[in-house]
């Protein structure tokens, strides 16, 4: 039982050291991820369209 108490105590102490992000940091990270995903998606769509057009012109 003592090991369980020590584990709980150490876990609580470690959790108090964690720095949680504020709303502004979360919003900025979301916007960054959204922009990167959008740019990569558009790039892949462009590559797909180019390859589709070139393949259809060959066939």
TrEMBL record:
Keywords: Cell inner membrane, Cell membrane, Membrane, Protein transport, Translocation, Transmembrane, Transmembrane helix, Transport. The keyword Membrane applies. One of its GO terms (cellular component) is plasma membrane. GO terms for molecular function: protein transmembrane transporter activity. The keyword Transcription regulation does not apply. One of its GO terms (biological process) is protein secretion. InterPro entries: SecE_bac (IPR005807), SecE_sf (IPR038379), Translocase_SecE/Sec61-g (IPR001901). Gene3D superfamilies: Preprotein translocase secy subunit. Belongs to the SecE/SEC61-gamma family. Essential subunit of the Sec protein translocation channel SecYEG. Clamps together the 2 halves of SecY. May contact the channel plug during translocation. NCBIfam families: secE_bact. This is Protein translocase subunit SecE. It comes from Sulfurospirillum barnesii (strain ATCC 700032 / DSM 10660 / SES-3). The gene is secE.
């Amino acid at each position: 039982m003592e090991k369980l108490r020590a584990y709980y105590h150490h876990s609580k102490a470690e959790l108090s050291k964690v720095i949680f992000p504020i709303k502004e940091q979360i919003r900025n990270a979301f916007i960054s991820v959204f922009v990167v995903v959008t740019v990569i998606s558009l790039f892949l769509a462009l590559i797909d369209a180019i390859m589709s057009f070139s393949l259809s012109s060959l066939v």
